[in-house]
Amino acid sequence: MSASTDKKQALKGAEWLIKESSAFETFIPEDFNEEQQMVKDMCNAFLDAEVLPVIDRIDKLEQGLMPSLIQKAGEQGLLGVAVPEEYGGLGKDFITATLVNEGLGGGFSFSVGVPAHTGIGTLPILYERSDGHRLHAAIQPVNDTSERPRRRQRDVSLQ
User: Is the model more confident about 5 or about 88?
Assistant: First the structure.
């Protein structure tokens, strides 16, 4: 007879919807540590100071405004929260990265640009490239958007 230890594996993604789990395994806001709370507050302050005052200009697609806001978010470290420090990110945990996405999610149209940069643009490079390619794939420094090539904005008018 062999002794076995039951090691509970953490649920991934939305597995809590389809797998049995205990209420004690569910993360709640009351479990945020001091650093996570500070990050959440920083996101709220960024929205209040930089995004919400210009929301009408964002909705009118003012030329250059979104790139400048994304750059400001990067300068504050909000674009590389989940990226390891060795690639120019903050190297924070999944909960902190989720807090940033949630915190910046109240920015109306701006809220589309940040996940496009961090999720669609950065994370595939981070997860799918070899170490040699990552360094050359515009990920370092992840929070500095000034050196990235600018794409020409298309005319989206319906004329």
Answer: 88
